[in-house]
Design brief:
Layout (H helix, E strand, L loop, with lengths): L1 H22 L11 H14 L1 H33 L1 H15 L6 H9 L3 H25 L3 H9 L4 H38 L8 H10 L3 H33 L5
């Protein structure tokens, strides 16, 4: 409780200093708008419906692209675990492409798919799939072989071993891989929305880009605040409860 109060106090003091510095023009309000100006834009854009609409469009794209990347990444991770040939080919490619910034896929996406939703999904999938693939393979390989041998001694084989031994043991690391993939997918989508322009369906990335183009830094920073809040809420409501459940069921927490 004391830690939360202290954290809130620090945030309040930082915002107060920021507001004071902007009011006294220690910094240019054009380059760094005051927190009240950012809050005013958020309030007005919510009333106008601009921000809620952009948010729903972005979340829809994120859900579709992330689910595709998650399914394909897990499938490839299992292939890498089973096949030495796949590890020496796709595994090497995955390690290399994982380090490639997702924004690098945007020019190819525009060239191949044009200014379409498919281009955005392509960037999101390519930005997240490789991290999920590598995390899935590592999660399965981290299962102690003793578990599998003990299960086979007791008569477990095939699918039963996977369902009752390997997957439950690998689940914590699989969850970490899914969380990592979500982070990559979220960043990839922002890059895609900045480069791929669909005027009829503007997401948060387009609002951020137009804020920069029009020197409306209150708009740009307001969108950045929304992006940070989405990441925080997703972690608190989705990934953190799942992690707590796994730790509790495995006796790793009280």
């Amino acid at each position: 409780m004391k830690t939360r109060v202290l954290a809130c106090l620090v945030c309040f003091l930082a915002l107060a200093f920021w507001q004071t510095a902007s009011h006294l023009e220690w910094v240019s309000p054009i380059l760094l708008p005051a927190p009240l100006d950012i809050g005013r834009y958020l309030f007005e854009s919510i009333l106008d419906g601009i921000l809620p609409q952009a948010l729903m469009i972005t979340l829809g794209r994120l859900f579709i692209g992330y689910c595709l990347g998650l399914l394909v990444g897990i499938f490839l991770g299992f292939l890498l675990y089973y096949s030495a040939l796949m590890r020496s080919t796709i595994g090497v490619v995955a390690l290399g492409l994982q380090t490639l910034p997702s924004v690098c896929w945007a020019p190819l996406a525009i060239l191949w798919f044009g200014q379409t939703e498919s281009a955005m999904y392509f960037v999101v999938v390519m930005g997240s799939i490789w991290a999920i693939t590598i995390a899935t393979e590592n999660a399965i390989q981290s299962v102690p072989p003793l578990y599998v041998r003990a299960a086979r001694v007791m008569g477990s084989t095939g699918l039963h071993t996977w369902r009752t031994i390997i997957l439950p043991a690998a689940l914590p690391q699989l969850l970490n891989g899914a969380k990592l993939g979500w982070a990559f997918a979220w960043r990839s989508l922002m890059a895609a929305e900045i480069y791929v322009m669909i005027i009829a369906n503007m997401g948060l990335g387009q609002l951020l880009h137009f804020g920069r183009e029009l020197n409306a830094m209150d708009q740009a920073m307001a969108v950045m605040v929304v992006i940070v809040l989405i990441g925080f809420v997703t972690d608190r409501l989705l990934f953190m409860p799942a992690e707590k459940y796994l730790r509790k069921t495995r006796g790793l927490s009280a």
